[in-house]
């Protein structure tokens, strides 16, 4: 066994001498013998010890337990208790100070050596564990500092993204509004050309034809700009639900008339309005966007001379709308993408469109607090079902 520097703290002189002799026989160095806690602490001030053999009952004001507490705090040296008592009360007091080991008196040499070895081994492992804990705490501190720094960078990036998003929204709105003024002038001019052509102009037919093309193109471009402006507001979180009192039948018929005015494929819109109150409360602008887009799509993707059915009723403060066409339908594989921005199904052919209409519908229904669902079969048509909160 390796040699240790040992301090003996024992108030019984005979026991102390016997212990000293036993330890020296095993080549340990005794740095001092103290009969009180006070003396043991004085010796430790000027001498380094590898281990302290501590009697529980000492002369002086400090007993072995209190002296061990001080040694643990100031010197962090392993302590082996020497006690003649093995009752549970004594052992509980000893356990509070986390001793390295204890020996019941009278002891034998073999038992003493084994206890000292265990005490040194336990102390070594505890110190290794403490060092590992300290290293771990340092790593945690470093990692926490790294995470805090990364979080600051992320916050900066998010702030920059927010600023860019606001800039994008302002650009979209400014550019879109800038287009609307000349488009209005072009539309007015096209309508005037058609009016002048009615006065037996020699190129009357050509003027009307080209003026109609200009008018339709301007309407399509104006509709696209309206959609872009809509998503500019949506992305900037500036869309709010603004309920107003609406004359139900008059509003629904106005939407249908607007859609009918743009029909180019001789599609008929059949309406069926049941159990409608005179007035409802909802957001008129959002409701118009929903119905105009769905009805326009139903007409656009219907076959020439086809039929679109528009059914509306009111139950339990819900406006229930059904829009059914007999058009080209949507394939099963593409139905999950139907509300994605700019998505257009593969079977739309040469029909014009931006792919924004149903995205607008979905966003409006989310803001208004409603529900939407659909069923569709290729070449058999599509039916949308919408429920919108609308109190009488």
Automatic annotation (TrEMBL):
Q: Which keywords belong to this entry?
A: ATP-binding, Coiled coil, Kinase, Nucleotide-binding, Phosphoprotein, Transferase, Two-component regulatory system
Instruction: Check the record and name the InterPro entries matching this protein.
Output: CheY-like_superfamily (IPR011006), HATPase_C_sf (IPR036890), HATPase_dom (IPR003594), His_kinase_dom (IPR005467), HisK_dim/P_dom (IPR003661), HisK_dim/P_sf (IPR036097), Sensor_HK_Regulatory (IPR050736), Sig_transdc_His_kin-like_C (IPR004358)
What top-tier enzyme class does this entry carry? Answer: transferase
Ranges for domain Histidine kinase come to 174-392
Mind telling me which SUPFAM superfamilies this protein's record contains?
Answer: ATPase domain of HSP90 chaperone/DNA topoisomerase II/histidine kinase, CheY-like, Homodimeric domain of signal transducing histidine kinase
Q: Name the reaction it catalyses.
A: ATP + protein L-histidine = ADP + protein N-phospho-L-histidine
EC assignment: the record states 2.7.13.3
One Pfam family recorded for the sequence: HisKA
- Highest taxon above the source species: Bacteria
Q: Which CDD domains match?
A: HisKA, REC_DC-like
Question: Which parts of the sequence belong to the Response regulatory domain?
Answer: 5-120
Designated name of the protein: histidine kinase
């Amino acid at each position: 066994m390796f040699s240790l520097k040992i301090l003996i703290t024992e108030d019984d002189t005979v026991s102390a001498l016997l212990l000293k002799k036993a330890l020296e026989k095993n080549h340990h160095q005794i740095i001092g013998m103290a009969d009180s806690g006070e003396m043991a602490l004085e010796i430790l001030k000027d001498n380094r010890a590898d281990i302290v053999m501590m009697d529980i009952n000492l002369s002086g004001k400090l007993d072995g337990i209190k002296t061990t507490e001080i040694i643990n705090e100031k010197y962090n040296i392993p302590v082996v208790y020497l006690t003649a008592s093995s009752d549970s009360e004594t052992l509980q007091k000893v356990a509070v100070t986390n001793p390295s080991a204890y020996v019941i008196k009278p002891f034998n040499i073999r038992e003493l050596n084994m206890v000292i070895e265990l005490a040194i081994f336990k102390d070594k492992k505890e110190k290794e564990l403490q060092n590992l804990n300290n290293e771990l705490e340092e790593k945690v501190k470093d990692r926490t500092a790294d995470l805090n720094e990364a979080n600051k960078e992320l916050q900066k990036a998010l702030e920059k993204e927010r600023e860019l998003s606001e800039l994008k929204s302002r650009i979209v709105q400014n550019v879109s509004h800038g287009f609307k003024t000349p488009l209005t002038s072009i539309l007015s001019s096209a309508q005037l050309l058609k009016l002048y052509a009615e006065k037996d102009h020699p190129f009357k037919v050509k003027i009307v034809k080209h003026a109609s093309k200009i008018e339709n193109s301007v309407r399509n471009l104006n509709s696209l700009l309206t959609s872009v402006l809509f998503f500019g507001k949506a992305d900037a979180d500036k869309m709010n639900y603004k309920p107003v009192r609406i004359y139900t039948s008059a509003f629904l018929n106005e939407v249908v008339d607007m859609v009918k005015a743009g029909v180019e494929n001789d599609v008929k819109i059949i309406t069926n309005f049941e159990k409608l109150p005179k007035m409802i409360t909802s957001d008129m602008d959002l409701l118009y966007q929903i119905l105009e887009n769905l009805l326009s799509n139903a007409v656009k993707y219907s076959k020439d001379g086809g039929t679109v059915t528009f059914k509306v009723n009111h139950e339990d403060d819900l406006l229930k709308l059904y829009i059914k066409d007999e058009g080209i339908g949507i394939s099963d594989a593409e139905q999950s993408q139907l509300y994605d921005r700019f998505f257009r199904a593969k079977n739309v052919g040469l029909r014009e469109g931006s792919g924004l209409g149903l995205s607008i519908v979905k966003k409006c229904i989310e803001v208004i607090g409603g529900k939407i669902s659909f069923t569709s079969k290729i070449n058999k048509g599509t039916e949308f079902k919408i429920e919108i909160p609308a109190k009488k």
